[in-house]
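yo

u said u wanted the structure for the complex thing, so here. seqs first:
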Amino acid sequence: MFGQIMNTKLPPRTVERLSKYRRLLDKYKGLDEAHIYSHKLAGLLNLTPEQVRRDLMLIGLTGNHRKGYNIKALIGIIGNTIDRQEGQQVALVGIGNLGKAVLGFIRKAETRMNIVAAFDIDRNKINTHIAHVPCFDIQEAKQVIREKNIRIAILTVPPEVAVSTTTLLLQSGIRGILNFTSVHLDVSPDIYLKDYDIITSLEEIGFFIK
Amino acid sequence: MFGQIMNTKLPPRTVERLSKYRRLLDKYKGLDEAHIYSHKLAGLLNLTPEQVRRDLMLIGLTGNHRKGYNIKALIGIIGNTIDRQEGQQVALVGIGNLGKAVLGFIRKAETRMNIVAAFDIDRNKINTHIAHVPCFDIQEAKQVIREKNIRIAILTVPPEVAVSTTTLLLQSGIRGILNFTSVHLDVSPDIYLKDYDIITSLEEIGFFIK
DNA sequence: TGAGCAATGTGAAAAAAATAACAGTTGTTT
DNA sequence: AAACAACTGTTATTTTTTTCACATTGCTCA
Ligand SMILES: NC(=O)c1ccc[n+]([C@@H]2O[C@H](COP(=O)([O-])OP(=O)(O)OC[C@H]3O[C@@H](n4cnc5c(N)ncnc54)[C@H](O)[C@@H]3O)[C@@H](O)[C@H]2O)c1
Ligand SMILES: NC(=O)c1ccc[n+]([C@@H]2O[C@H](COP(=O)([O-])OP(=O)(O)OC[C@H]3O[C@@H](n4cnc5c(N)ncnc54)[C@H](O)[C@@H]3O)[C@@H](O)[C@H]2O)c1
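structre next:
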């Protein structure tokens, strides 16, 4: 319906921005105008209009020279580009303070990424639901991950077990990890690893506000 | 002692990596060898040796051609480069699930970034300590931030109040923000803003593990 | 109808970042 | 003490990402 899936290699930065465009525009959908200009979108996200236009060009979206980009088409093509047709299942591993905060947050957020399982070792959490997500014993990870076709894990376990847990997850078929544990994980290049490192971010901020 | 402060403009990526080198080597300090090779450091962080050498070159650190880089000197120069002499004070704003997790985490982490105040509107939290950090009424933000010379804020308030809270923080003298609220903040270019956006990160991971 | 404006689409240039290549150094070995 | 090995330091090259610049298009209005 919205043009074909462009699976030519997209720059990582472009993918990030596409996700942001969509999330922003999801809120506009239906309400306001049917169209949006590159400079408007750029302004809302602190980017340049050229950058927006180039990103949209890369996914084969073409706007109207007078009205700008059709918002529905834009959301549609971004979806065709970055979503998987069969949906993306995500597991959260380690249901502590941080894990619970993340579960609550993602549940509220409107997203295509479905957290379908959480894992812990704590008997009090296992076999309960937290934020409507079923919690399992980490020992069942292999089966559950296979059964539910989970490919992505959010890692919020204590640092001591980060490496061993990662090994288990990779053996279970996980292909991408969002790592909150500030422990360096040594994974093969075909695993997509993204680290969230607050300390590094704070130090970076500290340096640049000098 | 460890060479002079190089305040020539460093690339953001380099600053990030410097922070990581230091954190990694803090653990090595005293224990193992006195020196480390670029390829060792690179291996530990999934970088290339050339990148490590270039980063260290940029901060004026010179290694021994046979033994590699002196770990103490390395930690020292990184400190001279990215730390502020007077220390960096940080505030956490919004002591909810996420805020508490972050407070607990940073407290445990060995870092030069000191969280010296937290703010909320909840009467039950105001005037208590959480993870040894004193909690204040957000209405007192202006005074407290001035008094304690805080320049950096971690923003973990509900999305609805993210923009207004940011305005208040900027008026109070905050220069850098680590934003967890997935709300787009429109700040002037002299404010260093870093967004942590889980949804975008997950979608990015989802795209690249295809 | 056609001049004018305000967008888009995109090649070209520039800037930023990563990688490669290699000469120079330092110790070791024979 | 000469040849060798294994590093570093740095220049050059490549790749990636952003910005510039401008021709083209679609609409409006006189
Ligand atoms: N990057 C950041 O910004 C940031 C912020 C806060 C915390 N953290 C890190 O995130 C992690 C979690 O932090 P937290 O405050 O939620 O800690 P927490 O102790 O509250 O939670 C850890 C959870 O993991 C569970 N767990 C322990 N071993 C496990 C295992 N083998 N398999 C599965 N689950 C297991 C525990 O039962 C607990 O529920 C820590 O590594 C912490 O350092 C990072
Ligand atoms: N980026 C992420 O990965 C991520 C993950 C989880 C949550 N979040 C976001 O982080 C924020 C906090 O999440 P949470 O789960 O901790 O929410 P929460 O509701 O548990 O906590 C919010 C806290 O802010 C306080 N607060 C409300 N208004 C305030 C004000 N004007 N000034 C100061 N404090 C105020 C509340 O009293 C509460 O303590 C939300 O915006 C959420 O969307 C982001």
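Chain A touches chain B through 59 residues (CB under 8 Å). Chain A has two domains: 12-82, 88-200.
cya
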